[in-house]
């Protein structure tokens, strides 16, 4: 009977004298006519239109508006670089592993555009009066959604399939690393005000958990992008398994402590939103304290689930050094 391979083989590249971990691919204008090339053109155009519409009427103010504008400009710039590299056949000269970089970026870009597509209309557009600025802002939101779908489609097209030999970042655990670091960054944005956690050692522990797990996941991503997985004192699969297990245990404590000390009156928490005077009025570009606490609790649960899935999927990978 034929045997079906259900695991994904991941290559980890040893450093060589040339410093290149991936084969050279000759560039050609025909790259733009391929499905992936056309998809990247859609990403380029949609992000360009989004920030152009907003910039033409100055329809961005405050931290949330700045975040959305940064997202569209950043995604446009990096997508343009990727297209130039592929058109010129410069993958081998690119300072990062081309086996891992495009899908890593596409996953981040999808999450960035998703956040902008949610944050921009809810914290800015709804407060604009009817007119040209509002129309441009609504159109920009629509193009941001298109960009999000385009980047997500690239991730779906280029991710690893069972039995394939590919880079780690194209696997499910690799993509989960991107999600974990992105969610951690959003958590950091919500806890940017120290008064949310400095009054309780347990809450300070939660912030330490978010920071430690973010740094470890970021290190795993950077090692793969730089083809430096061989510099670790232990094998890379062992590092990934230990990282996932440690993160699950740490996030489990944060999932218990953060809601307990933020929403239980016995521990100085605030159980009801109506009691938070900052949430009484609707403020443009502002998220009140109670909503920040709730958002962090939800994001903690999301990241815990991501780390659990990471731990499960990591055990199914087969690593081959080339």
Automatic annotation (TrEMBL):
Keyword Acetylation: no
Positions of the UniProt region annotated as Disordered: 1-22
Membrane topology of the entry: Multi-pass membrane protein
Domain MARVEL per the UniProt entry, residue ranges: 31-163, 168-319
Location in or out of the cell: Membrane
InterPro entries associated with the record: Marvel, MYADM-like
Membrane-crossing segments per the record: 38-61, 67-90, 102-125, 137-157, 178-196, 202-226, 238-261, 294-313
Cited Pfam families: MARVEL
Principal localisation: membrane
UniProt entry keywords in alphabetical sequence: Membrane, Repeat, Transmembrane, Transmembrane helix
Membrane is among the record's keywords: yes
Any Gene Ontology CC annotation: cell-cell junction
Biased composition annotated in UniProt, kind: Low complexity: 1-18
Family as reported in the entry's similarity comment: Belongs to the MAL family.
The protein, known as: Myeloid-associated differentiation marker
Species whose genome carries this gene: Puma concolor
Lineage, highest ranks first: Eukaryota, Metazoa, Chordata, Craniata, Vertebrata
